[in-house]
Design a protein that fits this description.
355 residues, six-stranded parallel sheet, 13 helices, LacI family transcriptional regulator, repressor, DNA-binding transcription factor activity, LacI/GalR-like_sensor
Length: 355
């Protein structure tokens, strides 16, 4: 039979309440008593019943994490940061990914009710009305890169608009006068902000320059499709196709690194030189970005750090600490060879709005 809390109390010659206070970390227990009870637990191989503990503390010691996807280096880095911070606090994670629309997101949120002490949410559907419709009013929530951040909910994000603006500024300063952009998924807040930054920088820095938008969805496959299409235009050398080639972009900025890398591989497979024939830049600085050849110019987002900060803020909210409002983390412009840079990689701080 499994060892119970009563067995521990009897073996330690203390009350059940004393054992419970040790399990729940109460400061009213002396260090001597705590050490004695913990030693008995170890001796008896006692495993606390999490469900029973939650009845007395009203806490599950579990936090929910809702992300758009779990595939790829970006989300692996995000979960790495969240998991590291959770483990330091003795918390468990309940993770769900979304591949559908608002109905699926709503179902995932409702499924976590009663199972978690708080939620980390990154979802294109996570506006204030959506959250209030699907979650208990007093459940602690921290949003990641969300349009609802800074209002009723705590949030952690980067300034996607300023970062995209800084990338176009770098490409224009490098002599590129025709800059294309691979968009992210429709309705995605980060993608919208990066597109907005691209457009604003193009209008301000290259007046009269034509926007060239290519539809993307943050996947490597989407970038590869754009790269293959551009390779055909770059290879056009005669007649009407030569005129089309002259109108093509001479730099391509992708809304994330996975699309930039997909485009780069497709261009190179078709014999197009990067950056000789077309310069290339991405966004996020996922680990593989520095290892492709040429190494990718990108915006460095503190992905794991963002997850860590979000979990720490959520733990504070669960403990009853004040912690609302928006927290904006600093991004960096990382200049490597893919945009035509010939020296060593260099990084430059991107000022946060109002900095």
């Amino acid at each position: 039979m499994a060892v119970t809390i009563k067995d521990v109390a009897q073996a330690a010659n203390v009350s059940v309440a004393s054992v419970s206070r040790v399990l729940n970390g109460h400061a009213t227990v002396t260090e001597e008593t705590r050490a004695h009870i913990l030693a008995i637990m170890k001796q008896l191989r006692y495993v606390p019943h999490v469900g029973a503990r939650s009845l007395s503390t009203s806490l599950t010691n579990t936090v929910g994490v809702l992300l758009p996807d779990l595939y790829g280096e970006y989300f692996s880095e995000m979960i790495r940061g969240i998991d590291g911070a959770a483990r330091r606090r003795g918390l468990h994670l309940l993770v769900a990914s979304l591949h559908g629309g608002a109905d699926e997101a709503a179902t995932a949120l409702r499924t976590m009710r009663g199972r978690v002490d708080g939620l980390l949410v990154m979802s294109p559907h996570a506006d204030a009305a959506f959250l209030s419709d699907n979650l208990p009013e007093h459940l602690p929530i921290v949003l990641l890169n969300s349009c609802a951040g800074g209002g009723a909910y705590a949030s952690v994000s980067i300034d996607n608009y300023s970062a995209a603006y800084a990338m176009v500024e770098h490409l224009a300063a490098s002599g590129h006068r025709s800059i294309g952009f691979i968009t992210g998924p429709a309705g995605n807040f980060e993608a919208q902000e990066r597109l907005r930054g691209y457009r604003a920088a193009l209008a301000a820095l290259l007046p009269g320059a034509r926007e060239e938008l290519h539809e993307g969805d943050f996947s490597e496959e989407a970038g590869a499709r754009v790269g293959a299409a551009l390779a055909r235009r770059i290879g056009a050398r005669t007649g009407a196709r030569k005129e089309a080639n002259q109108r093509r972009p001479h730099a391509l900025f992708a809304a994330n690194d996975m699309m930039a890398i997909g485009a780069q591989l497709a261009l190179q497979a078709a014999g197009v030189d990067v950056p000789g024939d077309i310069a290339l830049a991405g966004f996020d600085d996922i680990p593989v970005a520095r290892y492709v050849t040429p190494a990718l110019t990108t915006v460095r987002v503190p992905i794991a750090g963002m997850g860590e900060q979000a979990l720490d803020r959520l733990a504070g909210l669960v403990a009853g600490e004040a912690g609302g409002g928006a927290q904006t983390l600093e991004a960096q412009l990382v200049v490597r060879a893919s945009s035509g840079h010939t020296g060593r990689a260099a990084s430059h701080r991107i000022p946060i709005k109002g900095d």
